[in-house]
Automatic annotation (TrEMBL):
Taxonomic placement: Eukaryota, Viridiplantae, Streptophyta, Embryophyta, Tracheophyta
Identification of the protein by name: S-acyltransferase
EC number: 2.3.1.225
Top-level taxonomic group: Eukaryota
Transmembrane segments: 7-28, 82-102, 114-132, 208-229, 235-253, 265-288
Family per similarity comment: Belongs to the DHHC palmitoyltransferase family.
Record field: catalytic activity: L-cysteinyl-[protein] + hexadecanoyl-CoA = S-hexadecanoyl-L-cysteinyl-[protein] + CoA
Main location: membrane
Origin species: Acacia crassicarpa
GO cellular component: endoplasmic reticulum; Golgi apparatus
Compartment(s) where it occurs, according to its Swiss-Prot or TrEMBL record: Endomembrane system
Length: 392
């Protein structure tokens, strides 16, 4: 039983590390060990490493590490792109090596040898499209079309100039400090793509996420069917039933079947577990971005709205305490009020609850419009690209 326990532990540790690293800062993990692992992986471990390098090799070495960090995290670089291509090709290579001998099998036809390659090729194509497409770079020549496509809402966006590009900043745009350019309908800078995700390539990014989720699902199901086919072809269930003298019941046989599978096809099971974990993470990430697309919000705007809401909340609190202070001063100076008014005041709504804060997203024009806007960006529509005719 040793091999399968190693595999189970491997799966659990991988899941814990990946979930902690990617999702540990989420509110649901607040105060848990997952949050602590996240902080250790994202900053704690690196701080210890820097201190260790400084103490053992001196400040020159720690400065060298800092400049490597600057190149990796603050400058455009293809490290994660190479990493993505490496993971994809290695995973596909191991799948081919360990499963193609059983395709065609009992449940899978020979066509999956070609469709799997096609599916991976489409994935790479979407990756290249997202990585090398223009996210909506704003320059002095096209700024007017972005300004007309995205009017200021005067809530989270007001008329402003980019201090680096020295051009007017259209609403929903942001200056990406890594790429050093202003990008329209800026979502985020994606290290995996080495590109910003903005107005013109959000569609490719969404297609990339969805396709890679489906790719993981396809891989997991296909490996499951290969293994099920092997069980059927080798009559494993029948042999195990006879060997152990167990009745043909699922609960009685399942541990023996699992043991046999783990002993005979551990590489395939390892790949299936890896694909299932990555697939779940991709599904979560796609779901989050799909919700943003449906409500016509960007990742950048979610931070802006959070800032706006907390500022409004503080403003309401200040107003409420000022009103309470005024009331107590006037209460002290005027004659005593009848007891009934105190009771009424007690049951009245708190002034804090009076100022309802609403997130009024003027760019949200309904699900259908919002999705069409992602697929067919506003600034590429003729109504915004044509020069406006001056009234005569
Ligand atoms: Zn700029
Ligand atoms: Zn960028």
């Amino acid at each position: 039983m040793a091999v399968q326990w190693v595999l189970v532990c491997h799966g659990l540790v991988t899941l814990l590390v990946v979930v902690s690293f990617l999702c540990g800062q989420w509110p649901i993990f607040q105060g848990t060990f997952i949050e602590r692992i996240h902080f250790f992986l994202t900053s704690g471990a690196y701080d210890y490493f820097l201190r260790f390098v400084g103490a053992v090799f001196g400040s020159k070495c720690s400065n060298a590490v800092l400049s490597v960090e600057y190149y990796c995290c603050d400058r455009p670089n293809p490290i994660l792109q190479i990493f993505y291509l490496g993971i994809l090709s290695m995973t596909y290579y191991f799948i081919v090596k360990s499963s193609f001998a059983y395709i065609p099998g009992y449940y899978l036809s020979g066509i999956h040898r070609y469709t799997s390659l096609l599916a991976v090729a489409v994935g790479i194509l979407l990756f290249l499209l997202t990585s090398f497409s223009d996210p909506g770079t704003i320059n002095s020549a096209n700024v007017s079309q972005y300004l007309s496509a995205y009017p200021y809402d005067n809530i989270i966006y007001a008329e402003k100039e980019c201090s680096t590009c020295k051009i007017q900043k259209p609403a929903r745009s942001k200056h990406c400090s890594i790429c050093d350019r202003c990008v329209a309908r800026f979502d985020h800078h994606c290290g995996w793509m080495n590109n910003c995700i903005g107005e013109r390539n959000t569609r490719y990014f969404m297609a990339f996420l969805l396709w890679h989720f489906l790719l993981c699902l396809y891989g997991t199901v296909a490996i499951g069917l290969v293994l099920a086919g092997r069980l059927k072809e080798l009559r494993v269930v029948y042999i195990l039933t006879v060997y152990y003298g167990i009745e043909n019941s699922f609960l009685g046989l399942a541990p023996h079947v699992a043991q046999w599978l783990l002993g005979s096809y551990n590489t395939l099971i390892l790949i299936a577990v890896f694909l299932a974990i990555v697939g779940m993470l991709l599904a979560g990430f796609f779901g989050y971005h799909a919700k943003l697309c449906l409500t016509n919000t960007t990742t950048n705007e979610t931070f802006k709205w959070q800032e706006y809401m907390s500022w409004q909340r503080k403003l309401n609190e200040a107003k409420a305490s000022a009103a309470a202070l005024r009331a107590s001063i006037s209460g002290m100076s005027s004659d005593r009020k009848p007891l009934l008014s105190k009771w009424r005041a007690f049951f009245q709504r708190s002034p804090l609850q009076d100022g309802q804060i609403v997130q009024n997203n003027v760019y949200d024009k309904g699900f259908v419009h919002n999705v069409v806007e992602v697929i067919y960006p506003l600034s590429s529509r003729p109504s915004f690209t044509r020069p406006k005719l001056k009234p005569t």
